[in-house]
């Protein structure tokens, strides 16, 4: 066979061998009919970390929008690469803590009170707070026909989401600072504290069985859309108008076994918060789209437009305010004075923040040594 023929044949065979690789590369870049599956391909083809999956827990609340948007936009999954994100939603903090304790989830978005309770009840063995997510987004809303001033709350029925939850503790503390008396166990006293699931609170308000509620978003704005009035924004009670409403927690077992996965997840959370803050309208729409997927119904424009501005999305866990919230629970008789040393491990988050050129965050002396 002539030399030129052999050269041509070799080139033809090489080109034929390369063709499937070229087609695969084009497909993985999102060209052709498989473009809709890009997010799944990232998970399937990305570099796998030390765990096959990371099981995430969060609430279908706007105060958990870092999770809603990070999941909806694929930002969390992109950072996890070939490690699959497996989300589950919860309606209350205690059930999410139970799932973490039962090894049903690995990482969760959750409020400060269940974080504290979970840490204390396990004597510091089951979780760490590894980052912040949101501040604010909690309001006291009332029936304006019955309540016109804060002093008018005396003798009225005001809902909170759950006994001992973050809003319940905040309201009981506010009542105590007014000099009024309420039994924290029964909710009976100068104000009737009615523990009501956020899903049922709007109907309770419409029926007249409650006169108002101290609740997170979007429940507060749902009540406003039904005629209630905002009487107090909890942010006004805190220094710099900042207080932690949502933390990121992880099981200590998972953190020890898979530090690379935890770091990748935090990188995704930081990038999600950055995208939310840079694109508030798009982020609001993304969170609402995820809520629709989860519940079958999106929030109305009137509700979400009123709720969204009251929430600040931040990587800072605002650790000093967690200690204050623990002190409030003790004062209300819901908790014995807790030992919170070691509840935070912010080293992975600060590593991510430093790499991103962002300021590191502090643990208020409550971090692991």
In short:
The protein is α/β, with parallel strands linked by helices and 369 residues long.
Task: Please describe what this structure looks like.
With 369 residues, the chain is of the alpha/beta class. Helices cover 44% and strands 16% of the residues. It has 15 helices and 11 strands. It has helices spanning 3-28, 38-45, 65-72, 75-80, 93-101, 112-121, 166-177, 201-207, 219-225, 252-257, 259-278, 280-295, 301-307, 319-331, 347-355, and strands at residues 53-58, 84-89, 107-110, 127-136, 138-142, 157-160, 192-195, 212-216, 229-233, 244-251, 311-313. The strands form 2 sheets. It has a 6-stranded mixed beta sheet, sandwiched between helices. Strand 6 (157-160), helix 7 (166-177) and strand 7 (192-195) form a beta-alpha-beta unit. Helix 9 (219-225) packs across helix 13. It is globular. Residues 1-45 have low confidence and may be disordered.
Rg calculated over all Cα atoms: 24 Å
Low-confidence spans: pLDDT under 50, at least 5 residues? 1-45
Strand content: 15-25%
How does the helix and strand content classify structurally? alpha/beta
Please give the alpha-carbon distance between the first and last residues.
75 Å
The best one-word shape is globular
Report the helical percentage: 40-55%
User: How many β-strand stretches?
Assistant: 11
Biggest sheet: strand arrangement: 2-1-3-10-4-11
User: Mean pLDDT, rounded to whole units?
Assistant: 89
- Total of DSSP H or I helical runs spanning 4+ residues: 15
Characterize the main sheet: 6 strands, mixed
């Amino acid at each position: 066979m002539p030399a030129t023929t052999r050269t041509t044949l070799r080139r033809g065979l090489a080109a034929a061998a390369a063709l499937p690789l070229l087609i695969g590369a084009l497909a993985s870049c999102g060209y052709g009919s498989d473009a809709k599956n890009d997010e799944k391909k990232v998970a399937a083809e990305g570099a796998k970390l030390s765990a096959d999956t990371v099981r995430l827990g969060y609430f279908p609340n706007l105060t958990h929008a870092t999770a809603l948007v990070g999941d909806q936009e694929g930002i969390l999954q992109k950072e996890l690469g070939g490690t699959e994100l497996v989300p589950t939603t919860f309606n209350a903090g205690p059930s999410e803590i139970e799932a973490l304790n039962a090894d049903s989830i690995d990482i969760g978005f959750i409020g400060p009170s269940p974080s504290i309770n979970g840490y204390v009840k396990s004597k510091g063995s089951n979780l760490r707070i590894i980052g912040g997510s949101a501040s604010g987004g909690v309001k006291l809303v009332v029936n304006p026909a019955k309540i016109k001033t804060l002093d008018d709350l005396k003798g009225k029925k005001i809902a909170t989401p759950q006994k001992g939850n973050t809003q319940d503790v905040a309201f009981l503390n506010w009542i105590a600072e007014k000099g009024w008396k309420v039994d924290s166990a029964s909710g009976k006293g100068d104000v009737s504290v009615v523990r009501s699931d956020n899903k049922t609170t709007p109907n309770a308000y419409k029926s007249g069985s409650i006169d108002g509620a101290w609740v997170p978003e979007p429940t507060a704005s749902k009540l406003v859309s039904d005629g209630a009035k905002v009487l107090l924004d909890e942010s006004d009670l805190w220094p710099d108008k900042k207080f932690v409403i949502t933390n990121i927690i992880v099981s200590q077992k998972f953190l020890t076994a898979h530090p690379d996965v935890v770091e990748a997840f935090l990188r995704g959370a930081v990038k999600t918060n950055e995208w939310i803050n840079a694109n508030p309208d798009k982020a609001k729409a993304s969170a609402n789209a995820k809520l629709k997927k989860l519940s079958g119904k999106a929030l109305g424009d009137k509700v979400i437009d009123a709720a969204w501005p009251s929430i600040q999305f931040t990587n800072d866990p605002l650790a000093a305010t967690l200690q204050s919230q623990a002190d409030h629970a003790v004062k209300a008789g819901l908790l014995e004075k807790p030992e919170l040393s070691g509840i935070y491990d912010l080293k992975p988050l600060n590593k991510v923040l430093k790499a991103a050129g962002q300021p590191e965050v502090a643990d208020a002396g409550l971090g692991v040594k």
